[in-house]
């Protein structure tokens, strides 16, 4: 029997690196796509092959996919605010089309496309949403969500055309090796460092990044083509998330809850300032708008059909905090 070889896009990133590690642990050969000049800290100590390229460069994709039987398309431009929103569509929509065309051309048999719970319609009353809660493009707030929604639609089109494409929708990953960090990783880091004076009343579904990664492998083996599977964990109020993180480092959690109406104008100012200075901003209009609804989800389908399981979120918070410390990103007194 020949070695199974997977091509992983986004492997320098948080979820992609966890998927690459999960594959290596299962005895796969892994080839990873990485942009020139990208932060490759997450590859340290991993026995994987790297192909330098970009989702916009088809030749690099064909080169990377040659000889691979499986594709994990994890790469995405995950920014709630971008100076030029066209970048988000170029990667999240056209990049998805490019990689699926290249995969078909290279004779890749199976594809797992990483979407996001951002593409699922939330309930106004805070009930957990699931895969059956179909959203329309008009439900998508902001360019990140819109681009992920359109990217998922491309993956579904390919599945309908007869290709073996399974879609996974991770919720909010937390854990080690969040190098950027992601917007949620930034919240964990800021809370642990005592830089989170206040919060808005919202909620998130939190899952350990390594559980989400394992869910990708289960989706490959057990998933039905064209179906989507939410890979999540526990639904928690943001207040409880912050309290858990603060508790790990022995800080008092943020006590002040700000109404959305107060935060929204601040976000508009922060974005205007970011546009002027070319810097990114942690507080985004889109983030504040999204926070109006509790972002609660159910992983029941993945548990039932894939055998997906998740560990308690406390473990994810501890692993994240300890990793930030180990990287010198978090210095505690």
Tell me the layout of helices and strands.
Elements: E1 5-9, H1 14-25, E2 29-34, E3 49-52, H2 58-65, E4 70-73, H3 86-106, E5 110-114, H4 142-160, E6 165-170, E7 172-174, H5 183-192, E8 198-200, E9 203-208, H6 209-222, E10 228-231, E11 234-237, H7 238-248, E12 256-258, H8 260-277, H9 285-290, H10 300-306, H11 313-326
Parallel strand pairs: 1-2, 1-4, 2-3, 4-5, 5-6, 6-10, 7-9, 8-12
Antiparallel strand pairs: 9-11
Helix pairs in contact: 1-6, 2-3, 3-4, 5-7, 5-11, 7-11
Characterization of this structure:
The structure is a single chain. Helix content is 42%, strand content 16%. The chain contains eleven helices and twelve strands. It has helices at 14-25, 58-65, 86-106, 142-160, 183-192, 209-222, 238-248, 260-277, 285-290, 300-306, 313-326; strands at 5-9, 29-34, 49-52, 70-73, 110-114, 165-170, 172-174, 198-200, 203-208, 228-231, 234-237, 256-258. Strands 3-2-1-4-5-6-10 form a seven-stranded parallel beta sheet, with helices on both faces. 45% of the residues are buried.
The helix-and-strand class reads: alpha/beta
The count of strands amounts to: 12
Shape: globular
**What do the pLDDT scores average to?**
91
**CATH fold label of the domain at 5-173 and 208-233 and 298-310:** Rossmann fold
Question: Nutshell version of this structure?
Answer:
It contains eleven helices and twelve strands. By secondary structure, the chain is α/β, with parallel strands linked by helices.
């Amino acid at each position: 029997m020949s070695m199974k070889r997977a091509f992983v896009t986004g492997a320098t990133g948080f979820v992609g690196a966890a998927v690459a590690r999960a594959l290596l642990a299962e005895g796969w050969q892994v080839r990873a796509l990485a942009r020139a000049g990208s932060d490759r800290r997450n590859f340290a100590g991993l026995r994987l092959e790297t192909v330098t390229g970009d989702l916009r460069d088809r030749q690099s994709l064909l080169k990377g996919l040659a000889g691979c039987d499986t594709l994990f398309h994890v790469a995405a431009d995950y920014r709630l605010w971008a100076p030029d929103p066209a970048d988000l569509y170029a990667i999240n929509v056209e990049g998805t089309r490019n990689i699926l065309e290249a995969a078909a051309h290279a004779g890749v048999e199976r594809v797992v496309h990483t979407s996001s719970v951002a593409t699922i319609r939330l309930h106004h009353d805070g009930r957990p949403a699931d895969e059956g809660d179909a959203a329309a493009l008009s439900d998508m707030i902001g360019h990140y969500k819109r681009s992920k929604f359109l990217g998922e639609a491309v993956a579904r089109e390919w599945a309908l055309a007869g290709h073996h494409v399974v879609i996974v929708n991770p919720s909010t990953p937390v854990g080690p090796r969040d190098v950027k960090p992601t917007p949620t990783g930034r919240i964990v880091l800021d809370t642990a460092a005592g830089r989170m004076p206040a919060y808005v009343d919202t909620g998130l579904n939190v899952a350990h990044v390594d559980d989400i990664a394992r869910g990708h492998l289960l989706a490959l083996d057990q998933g039905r083509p064209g179906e989507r599977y939410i890979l999540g964990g526990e639904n928690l109020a943001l207040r409880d998330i912050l309290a858990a993180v603060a508790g790990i480092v022995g800080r008092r959690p943020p006590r002040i809850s700000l109404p959305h109406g107060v935060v929204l104008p601040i976000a508009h100012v922060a974005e205007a300032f970011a546009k002027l200075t070319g810097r990114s901003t942690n507080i985004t209009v889109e983030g504040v708008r999204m926070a109006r609804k509790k972002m609660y989800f159910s992983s029941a389908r993945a548990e039932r059909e894939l055998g997906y399981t998740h560990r308690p979120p406390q473990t994810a918070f501890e692993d994240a905090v300890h990793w930030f410390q180990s990287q010198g990103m978090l210095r505690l007194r």
